[in-house]
Amino acid sequence: MALINLRKISLGFGSPRLLDGVDLQIEKGERVCLVGRNGAGKSTLMRLISGEVQPDGGEITRAPGLKAAVLSQEVPKDLTGTVFDVITGGLGDVHGLMAEYHAAVSACEAGGEKELAELERIHHELETRGAWLSTQRVETVISRLKLPADAEFSELSGGYKRRVLLGMALVAEPDLLLLDEPTNHLDMDSIDWIEEFLLGYRGTLLFVTHDRMLMQKLATRIIELDRGRLMNWQCDYGEYLKRKENLLNSETQQNALFDKKLSEEEAWVRQGVKARRTRNEGRVRALIEMRKQRAERRDLEGSARIRTQEADISGKLVIEAKGIGFSYGDRPIINDFSTVIMRGDKVGIMGPNGSGKTTLLNLLLGKLEPATGTVRLGTRLEVSYFDQLRATLDEERTVQDNIADGNDQIIIDGKPRHIIGYLQDFLFTSDRARTPVKVLSGGERNRLLLAKLFSRPSNLLVMDEPTNDLDIETLDLLEDIIVEYPGTVLLVSHDRTFLNNVVTSTMVFESNGLNEYIGGYDDWLRQRPQAEEKIDKKPKREKPKKERAVKLSFNEERELKDLPEKIESLETEQGVLYGTMSDPAFYRQGGQKTAEAKARMAEIEATLKASYARWEELEARKDASAGA
To answer: Is residue 610 included in any domain, yes or no?
Structure first.
């Protein structure tokens, strides 16, 4: 039986409907990727599947006892507490009690009779409600996700916050895990981690992403929400692109033939009196039906029409940096780095969040003075800067006023153009052009920034995370624009496919400092030092295909067979030990026994981590060899 089945689902806020007779079935073990343009209704469909909203019409059938959990796109701003507290939030009604218990255990280690009495009270209530298995589940999830249980959630990096939210979803042991843009705004280390985790996840996934590399690796099926209808593509992302192009070409041809036939019939029905006397009533009825079909047809929405304005050609040398260094207090950001950027170069900048990518941009542009070394800028530079923080947008002003500063026209390629027409190239309707920026979605804000960026001539494009929140079609178009751009480009991005398709070289913040490589993301993977591969924990991706396809040895086959039993035994011991340590009487035995129990618990957790990692590694190799 399918986990969930949607039949003839309709949902909308006005006309046309977001969902118009949608059918969808998700089977156990699938990894389904939901694609579609920004505003097509993807998040709405996810909320409908999770039960958060109800359809206007149609039927939803769920497997008995189906549990669905959601990893939302945004990190909740009001989420506080320790990692343990936040993850236990995924357990529902026992969340508060488990958080109290976790705090009481910590208090007992240095407390007296009062603290022991409180621990005993909470312990009794947890026993009464049968919550100990849930407690063990939280510990297991924290261990598998390699999270610091007692760290404050608010103090974690963006990547670790997303890990915690993933743990919050997983602890409920959902049958169906819904992921809305799981890699958005994450740095590459975090993206790589979440990708590897999801590839090893045994549950069922429905996810929305604009990360084309993640989609290619993870999805076993593509479903596309397009003009209110859902289309099913039983293939990976690469094959989907080919089939989609063929379908659109076929649709265009069919529509052209239909419109030609309709035009001919309209001409026939408007003939004179003589023709009307011999009019075929069946032909008239067919024309009426054709008119109805044409009125109901939802044509494909127009694509963004983005193009740059060229300034005068810059000097051949654009930027030269010699031995530059920069620090924030005692924290070094860049040390003794040199580079030469020539006209026409397209340079990608990569590195973890907080490593100094934006600082490097400001140094290279002369906005910051290096502590050591020198930066020399070339001649006749006209810079356009895309800001990831969107600081160049005035939230209170309208979309059109942010571009034209209250005027009706702007100058494009030396000629006046009406601002509404210009904004329509970036998919803003006339009504949307007159709305304040503060009500725009993330994708709309990025399109507005692109409209502002390209409203003036330039020969040096500086783009800090331009791909966040853009749909795939706009991403493809932006790639083409940058590739064809005759000037120089400095690009900060975590979008691996985007970097592969656009840049000619990369500057990467690594463990040993800032280094420069030829080519894009995949080229960097091939060229980076072996030591860096170990630090990033990505040896699987670097192995050649032949090595990945090597069959398991006899001993490895036996190890793989025994690992589930070993893990189960460790988790059983962990549960027993956890139960023992949860008894308030345990803390009256003395410091040595308490220390021994804690040491054993730490040893079990470390062994479990290693066992899970080994199990996933052997399973991956087994699957690879089976498919070779």
So the answer is: yes
